[in-house]
Amino acid sequence: MSRMTQFALAAAVAASCLSSASAQTFQGRLVDGTHSATCTVSGPNKCTMFFNPTLNITILNNWNLGQGNWSATADSGSAQALAASAGLAASGLAGWVLPTGNGNLAAGAQNQYLSIWNDVGASFAGLNGQFDGVQSEFYWSGTEDLPNPFSMWYFNPSSGYLGSAFLYYGWHAVAVRPGDVAPIPEPQTYAMLLAGLGALMVAVRRRPR
Q1: Does 191 reside within a domain?
Q2: Residue 162 belongs to a domain with what CATH number?
Q3: Could you give the CA distance from residue 114 to residue 137 in angstroms, rounded to a whole number?
Q4: What is the model's pTM?
Q5: Is the dihedral of CA 104, 109, 113, 119 positive or negative?
Q6: Residues 91, 178: Cα–Cα separation, whole Å
Q7: Checking phi first, is residue 171 left (phi over 0); if not, alpha (psi -120 to 50) or beta?
Q8: pLDDT tens digit string along 11-66?
């Protein structure tokens, strides 16, 4: 086997290891941002946050941050202010906002709520199984319902429905943050990679010449 072929096989093993490690839709993060494959939704080993690699956002585990109106300037007591303060208190990091949501758009970056809903199995029970403190009442999104004046999109966790309503309602907040709070690969990723490369090299050495 040529050296070029060996490198190609090693790269394939590495890619397989990395893809399997990143396939998990919601990856647990502890309060200091470190990766955890064993933290739970609730209880003494509770995850503080979850990273969603598809959306490339970190989602605060606590979905019971309180209720507030919608405010473009994140006024005190608003849903935006609740998300920002809760995320900062939980992680020590700024930049927390409400998830995007638009009933006219498909799941993805501009409709994070729908993407999360689909990823948990499109059910209220799925949301409760993935996040702590999920409420049955409406949650504000961070998206305005343009061009309708004073109208914003909201998310119904009981049905997954995204609707539009006036900004003065006092509804719940969820905190998300762009990117991963802990971008360093998990230790098990390195272990899998090394194990795969080791097995490959043993096979190459044992091959008859």
Answers
A1: no
A2: 3.10.100
A3: 16
A4: 0.79
A5: positive
A6: 13
A7: beta
A8: 444 444 444 444 589 999 999 999 999 999 999 999 999 999 999 999 999 999 99
